[in-house]
Design goal:
With about 150 residues, the chain is mainly alpha-helical. The protein has helices at about 20-25, 30-35, 40-70, 100-105, and strands spanning about 80, 110, 135-140. It is elongated, with a radius of gyration of 19 Å.
Length: about 150
């Protein structure tokens, strides 16, 4: 089975701020993972996270397919975002442990209506103040329902 490689910044920085250590110690698992996970365990963690992401992708595709089959895809604005990123083993950390860039960069995808908005690609980042779960809004289409 294929396991993804570790990220280039897998090891903690030598000059890591003391505040990071304080945050890691707030939950015992963070400290244990950082100190005891082997390289293979970190790679398995990354593999599991990638599989969960693929599961979300599949659910999004289900909604897109339903919009297309109903003829409402072209007139539907879809916005997908999250309240946080993931450490994904960077700095030997997991989940949304601390405020490193990996954790505060929030994924966001937007599919606009072709009839109303000109298509364009933009790269950048933003952050939210929300602590809610991942959001998936459909502003028009499927009579406002997800099934």
């Amino acid at each position: 089975e294929f396991l993804p490689p570790l990220p280039f910044n897998h090891m903690p920085a030598e000059d890591e701020p003391e505040a990071i250590d304080f945050l890691i110690n707030e939950r015992g698992f963070r400290r244990l993972a950082r100190e005891r996970y082997t390289e293979e365990q970190w790679r398995l963690h990354r593999h599991a996270y990638a599989r969960l992401t693929e599961e979300v992708d599949g659910q999004i595709q289900t909604v897109i397919d339903a919009l297309k089959s109903s003829g409402k895809f072209e007139n539907t604005v879809i916005i997908l975002t999250s309240d946080h990123g993931d450490m994904d083993s960077a700095h030997k950390l997991e989940h949304k442990s601390v405020f490193y860039e990996e954790c505060i960069r929030v994924p966001m995808l937007v599919k606009a209506c072709r009839k109303r908005f000109a298509a364009r690609r933009t790269r950048g980042s933003f952050q939210t103040g929300s602590t809610a779960s991942a959001r998936f809004w459909i502003t028009r289409g499927l009579n406002g329902r997800l099934t």
